[in-house]
Amino acid sequence: MYLKTWKEFETASYNLLLKDPTRVRCTMKYCHSEATVQLKVTDDISCLQFKTSDIQNVKKIEVFYATIMKQIISNEL
Predict the structure, then answer these.
(1) Which residues fall within 8 angstroms of residue 37, CB to CB, at 6 or more apart?
(2) How does pLDDT run along the chain (77 residues), one tens digit per residue?
(3) H/E element, 75
């Protein structure tokens, strides 16, 4: 399901990550023809998606992915 706002997506993704960090996968795809970035966070049960063409969200996405990766790595060790 596509979430409408960045805050919704971010909150739902963090909740999914906290539930089971070893099963969460994150992907990011850039569509040049539409000039959009599509994000997807899934644990094979729930699938959260967010799509944006707003350039201001790029920095938020960078911080989000850094936080998610730190959390996944710290829980695997």
Answers:
(1) 28, 29, 30, 31, 51, 52, 53, 57, 58, 61
(2) 799 999 999 999 999 988 888 888 889 999 999 889 999 999 999 999 999 988 888 888 889 888 888 877 776 54
(3) helix 57-76
Task: Centre a 10 Å sphere on the Cβ of residue 1 and count the other Cβ atoms it contains.
Answer: 9
Query: Do residues 61 and 39 make contact, with C-beta atoms less than 8 angstroms apart?
Result: yes
Long-range (24+ apart) CB contacts under 8 A made by 22-28 are 22/72, 22/75, 22/76, 24/68, 24/72, 26/65, 26/68, 28/61, 28/65
5 and 51 Cβ atoms separated by less than 8 Å: no
CA distance 76 to 48: 22
**What pLDDT, on the 0 to 100 scale, is given for residue 77?**
45
Angle, CA of 58, 62 and 43, to the nearest 5°: 110
